[in-house]
Amino acid sequence: MKPVQPTVSMPDLSQPCVMGILNVTPDSFYADSRRTTREAVEQRAREIVDEGAAIIDIGGYSSRPGADEVPVEEEWRRVALGLEAVRRVAPGAAVSVDTFRSEVVERAVAEFGPVTVNDISAGELDPRMVPTVARLGVPYVAMHMQGDPRTMQSLTNYRRDIVTEVVDYFECRCGQLLAAGVSRARIILDPGFGFAKTLEQNYELLAGLHRLCALGYPVLAGVSRKSMIYRALDATPAESLAGTVALGWECLRQGASVLRVHDVREAADTVRLFRLYEKMRHGDGK
């Protein structure tokens, strides 16, 4: 029987929401997020929905620094395993596919219906990605990065400050996306915390996140358990939940629309409290 397809590929982003990470990989940087069997993937999909995520982000290719290349057929096998699981246990859920390969996007939409594309390269690693997204009409998360996962941490030299570099990059890249036929209403920007950025640059970028939000596109913030937290705290990814919550609040305060996280319940609570705080701050909470 053909899997039930979702009615939406991206929820309304007029209010902040949570994207829950479903890593169908054996080597993602946070070991506790790895799922490789059908049973484990289904359990994780249920958890993500039950804990309050609006979007399930399925990845079959680890983008951690220094990650090995994954053959496209193996990436597709993992992504398909995740999509099949989500369609079984949460058939109406909005789903994104974390990939920079247009072939994976084509197959995902053909076999499982509309998805959001979450591309760490903003179309730079596959010249067919942007035309594919435009033709399919799917939402598109474009992330800032230099190089690829194997080389990015050696590419942290910028001519100007990191915030200006990222904002200028997206002003140019969004123009290219629009010219290629990608709808403005379907573009989401990700500043790429941890990708081709030093510890200091990550915090400079966080401090200037409002400048990226001012471009008028929804902004996705992915800081969950990343090195910008655990290295600053002399800790490990497993010990970085409190730091993730703290930085998540700051991302929301500066205007981020989506928090991409490993710990969905805590992020969903953060969003709920932030929305209540904003309601009271603006005097309409009585």
Task: Give the tally of β-strands.
Answer: 8
CATH class assignment: Alpha Beta
- Which term fits the overall shape? globular
Report the biggest beta sheet as strand number plus sense, adding barrel if it closes. 8 strands, parallel
Question: Strand-and-helix sequence, N→C?
Answer: EHEHEHEHEHEHHEHHEH
Secondary structure class reads alpha/beta
Number of helices: 10
CATH superfamily: Dihydropteroate synthase-like
| Overall average pLDDT | 90
How many structural units, i.e. domains?
Answer: 1
Query: At the third CATH level, what is the topology name?
Result: TIM Barrel
> What Rg do the Cα atoms give?
18 Å
Task: Give your account of this protein's structure.
With 286 residues, the chain is an alpha/beta fold. The protein has one domain: Dihydropteroate synthase-like (TIM Barrel, Alpha-Beta Barrel). It has helices at 38-50, 72-89, 102-112, 129-136, 162-179, 199-207, 209-213, 227-230, 241-253, 264-281, and strands at 17-23, 55-59, 94-98, 116-119, 140-143, 187-190, 220-221, 258-261. The protein has an eight-stranded parallel β-sheet with strand order 6-5-4-3-2-1-8-7. Residues 1-7 have low confidence and may be disordered.
Tag the structure with descriptive keywords.
alpha/beta, TIM Barrel, 10 helices, 8 strands, disordered N terminus
